[in-house]
Amino acid sequence: MNNDSLKTKLLETINIKRKEMIETANKEGYTSELAVQCSQDLDLLLNEYQQMLIEEKKPKVAPFHDLVHSMKLFTYADRYSY
């Protein structure tokens, strides 16, 4: 499954959970245990979606770039301190 279809499925799940939370809150009260649980579940789904968006915007770094960066962490003295 590609990233766009994963996001679409997650958005559908978010909307279903949002409706469930609103219905539960209206029936049982906003501070009922079930309404709070729905709210927490919705928060997790929204966090997951937000993380997907953040990951999409991260620049793709080549493995060679990572190697060069890690090599910069060593100093000249580190190489010759036996």
UniProtKB/TrEMBL annotation:
- Entry's SUPFAM superfamilies? BAS1536-like (SSF140500)
Pfam families for the chain: SpoOE-like
InterPro entries xrefs: HLH_DNA-bd_sf, Spo0E-like, Spo0E-like_phosphatase, Spo0E-like_sf
Task: Write down the PANTHER family for this protein, in alphabetical order.
Answer: ASPARTYL-PHOSPHATE PHOSPHATASE YISI
* Name the record gives this protein: Spo0E family sporulation regulatory protein-aspartic acid phosphatase
Species this chain originates from: Metabacillus endolithicus
